Amino acid sequence: MARLKFKRYVSASVCAGIACISQACTSAESVGSLAPSRSNVSTLESSDSSSSVSALFENNPRAVTSVDIALALAVLNLPSNLQANDAAIIAAASQILGTTIDRQRVNPDPSAASVNFVDPTAIEIADPALLLASSRLSQEERTLDNLAIQVNKILGANNAIDREKIVAIPGGISESIVVSGNCTLVAAINAANLDTEVQGCPAGNGPDTIELRSDVTLTDVDNTLIGPSGLPVIASQITISGNGEIIRRDDNAPEFRILLVDDDARLTLRNVVISNGFLGGDRVELDTTGGGVLSRGGTVIIEQGARVVGNRALRGGGVYAQAGIDDTPEVVIRDPNTKVENNTARAFGGGVYVVNGRLEISSGAEIIANVAETAGGIYFIGNEMFITGDSTRIARNEATLDGGGIGIQDGLANISDGVVVANNNAARFGGGMLVNFTSARLGDVGFFSENEVNFSGNTAVSGGAIFFDSRGRGDLNIVNTRFLNNRLGVSNDDTIVPTGSAIFTVSSDFSLNSSCIVNNDGVALANVSSSLIDATDNWWGAATGPGPDVGAGDLVDGNSNVGGFLRMPILGCPARN
User: Fold this and answer.
1) Is 158 helix (H, G, I), strand (E, B) or coil?
2) Strand ranges (DSSP E) for 204-306?
3) What is the pTM of this model?
């Protein structure tokens, strides 16, 4: 990656809820009002370029500078007992920049909107917005693009930084590798992996960001390390960023997935689309997995509106992740408008398949309209799965056998904080979710909250919303969860009896509390185990409690303790129709 150094600007305050430097401190809550000002610019450089830098900034009042970043990083990386020590900050920032910072005057007027330094080599600590932005990103994520995005979120639209006008001087903060002209996406990935110039692309250096400016159509196989892939193996820390650009396999191209992430590597996809990867074989090996993205022990982050759409494979139609030689894989899918959709797996995990790794889906991301034989949306085996965040949706996925939305086996799964699992369908068991041989936690502990988990409109022959069978290897605990309008499908197998439109449990290691179970088909809660299960303190849609033995609410069948049922709806739970 090419490297840039950016001249600094001065600004009013010196802290953003992280560390107070010098004589002034501004809380994180008030950062948004502090727009950067450069009416009087003082500069810093090891050369005698002060006068020329002022001219560079004359028509660029909102450029982010390398000194700002260096100071912010210095504060973040110093021990807490040194974070208010000017000398320590200057020394650490100088080391980051590779040039000496001479700070003979510090923040002479903390109340001023801008500071006119008498000494042209004097500087003040980073703008508080930039300091706060740096604190929100990991070390490898602190690229210029990411910092600019975070600063703009903090400052708001009226004070947004113009990323296109940033002044560049050799050395300093990383610049993106732009895919343009002779610098193709294949060459850009190789340049980032090898930290050397490749076919018109500048050399990478540490974590790299590759910027797309147009769609990319792949026509040939790049490598066959683990089956065919259309792009070079991701072997370092690489972000591919765009503005909705599509990376797709040509319809007439041979079979290949789009991307492969190797051990100890990290791929971040930001506002790009991964599409039309295809692996058509029936072999069970890794070379037929991950139509869009395969991770063998690496980390995959899909965020900021990125989408994985219309890919196909035997397992993990959209994304597949499995432990590598040395590392455990991690898949993170987050942010509004980030989607894994319309992918297909002939066996397991139409959208996402993670085995012996960690899976996080959060902050409004969506897993929608994927199809598989088992686990149409998500298939998870082992370690940890977290699905959280208001507006995060698992919806309209389909399984031709079991687990329409989610299939879980082994490990520990947590679903909380307003997640919606809706309108998924399975031909047999678990329209919304299938839980086998493992433990799961649904909802946030406590009495009814606004951000309940919501299972609605899911369909299966048994367990329209949830089918649970731990075989003694785990438990299912549900609190603060809504089960509304889930349905029983039509059975094509005489051995499968339609029942448990909300929940079907084969296991006694089960509890359902402080939840809302209303307007579900037939028997809503079916317990076919021989032991008593705990289903207390719930609203069943009627003040008289659940039917048929107690009241007029949704029906319960099997050995269940439904005592202490709620006698009035809470927080918008409806009455039974």
Assistant:
1) helix
2) 208-212, 216-218, 237-249, 259-261, 266-275, 293-296, 299-303
3) 0.74
